[in-house]
């Protein structure tokens, strides 16, 4: 257990110290700023599409740090050292997911407040939006680490990561945007999808790390 | 300390090519094995099999006691100070207090605060060695430990391995450079 916490803490430190935190948040806000420019200043229209825009922006922001999650550790031999100590690759991947989530999700929730104001979202949709993001971002983080493990060491890993990750994130996007609208049933489906990703992705990532080793 | 490492009829196949087969040796407390062979003979693969990173194609690897691996890379966070980077692993191994002594043993105590990314190749190698020492593991698996080291550091390395063995430890060393390991079994690939 203490090893798990040590890995989580290390992920957090790396996320916060390498500017890895600032980039996704800045990117997220930038997307939220761009949309009113593209659509126009019609407050009613912005309020209607706002929830979906924020979810799409969150998805893209979660994709940004994917390249730094697994590849550097595979290259520097860190992953081999964990394995040589008898830790399963899936456990290491699970710890990385927790660390990745703590690294970007709380800041993303804070940034959502600003983005909601930019998109003219009505106050009563803010709470379901934040709750939906809080439920959905663990799934995004899990998917991010699994994707990072799958594309680790490949050429053009960044572009490939988008192709691998975004299709699997579609259910999160659909139910997340639905939950921030007026479909309360979407919450349960969002939670179910997020839970499935959180439960399954450590094994996918662990298997990918093992494959990369041989 | 109780320690052991044994290979029983181990074979290694990499990319469809058989590197070695029928390999057997056993090491008890205080013993060492020197793995030699030309480039590509499977020295690193043997070390990785011993570390549990690669499954052997056939045969069995058994052992007693924790194993510490020194591979090609130092496996230290480049942005951290040297002492902090080594301490990350020492904490996981439950020997956080052993870091300063380990750094002093390899002659890097003056660089404890210097970020790992600024270290030279040889210093990084010694830093990796400090990680192995600080782990407190009885079984050392060293892959080309003399790479990038100057003559003086190779002497230090030999002394460290000898001290480790006299304390009941085991060393499995793969190298293409001459390293003096008195009374070591030779495993020629």
From TrEMBL, chain A:
Record's subcellular location: Cell inner membrane
Membrane topology: Multi-pass membrane protein
Keywords, in A-Z order: Cell inner membrane, Cell membrane, Cytochrome c-type biogenesis, Membrane, Transmembrane, Transmembrane helix, Transport
Any GO BP annotation: cytochrome c biosynthetic process
Positions of transmembrane segments: 21-39, 45-66, 101-121, 127-152, 159-177, 189-209
Any matching Pfam family: CcmB
Protein name: Heme exporter protein B
Protein source organism: Sphingomonas gei
């Amino acid at each position: 257990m203490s090893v798990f916490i040590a890995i989580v803490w290390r992920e957090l430190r790396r996320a916060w110290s390498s500017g890895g935190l600032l980039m996704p948040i800045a990117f997220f806000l930038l997307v939220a700023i761009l949309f009113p420019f593209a659509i126009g200043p019609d407050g009613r229209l912005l309020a209607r599409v706002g929830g979906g825009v924020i979810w799409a922006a969150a998805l893209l922001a979660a994709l940004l740090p994917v390249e730094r999650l697994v590849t550097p550790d595979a290259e520097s031999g860190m992953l081999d050292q964990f394995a040589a100590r008898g830790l399963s690759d899936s456990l290491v991947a699970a710890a990385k997911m927790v660390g990745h989530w703590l690294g970007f999700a709380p800041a993303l929730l804070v940034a959502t407040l600003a983005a909601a104001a930019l998109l003219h979202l009505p106050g009563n949709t803010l709470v379901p939006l934040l709750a939906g993001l809080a439920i959905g971002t663990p799934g995004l983080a899990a998917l991010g680490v699994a994707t990072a493990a799958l594309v680790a060491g490949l050429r053009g890993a960044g572009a490939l990561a988008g192709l691998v990750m975004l299709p699997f994130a579609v259910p999160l996007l659909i139910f997340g945007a639905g939950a921030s609208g007026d479909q309360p049933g979407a919450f349960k489906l969002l939670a179910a999808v997020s839970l499935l990703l959180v439960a399954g992705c450590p094994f996918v990532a662990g298997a990918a790390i093992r494959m990369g080793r041989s | 300390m109780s320690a052991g490492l044994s290979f029983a009829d181990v074979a290694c196949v990499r990319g469809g090519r058989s590197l070695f087969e029928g390999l057997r040796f056993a090491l008890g407390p205080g013993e060492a094995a020197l793995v030699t062979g030309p480039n590509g003979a499977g020295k690193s693969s043997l070390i990785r099999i011993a570390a549990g990173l690669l499954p052997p194609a056939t045969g069995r690897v058994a052992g007693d006691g924790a194993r510490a691996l020194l591979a090609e890379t130092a496996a230290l966070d480049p942005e951290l100070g040297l002492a902090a980077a080594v301490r990350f692993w020492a904490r996981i191994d439950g020997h956080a207090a052993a870091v300063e002594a380990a750094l002093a043993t390899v002659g890097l105590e003056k660089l404890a605060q210097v970020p790992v990314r600024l270290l030279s190749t040889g210093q990084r190698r010694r830093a990796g060695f400090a990680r192995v020492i600080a782990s407190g593991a009885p079984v050392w698996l060293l892959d080309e430990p003399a790479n990038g080291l100057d003559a003086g550091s190779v002497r230090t390395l030999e002394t460290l391995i000898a001290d480790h063995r006299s304390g009941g430890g085991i060393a499995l060393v793969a190298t293409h450079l001459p390293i003096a390991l008195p009374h070591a079994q030779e495993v020629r690939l």
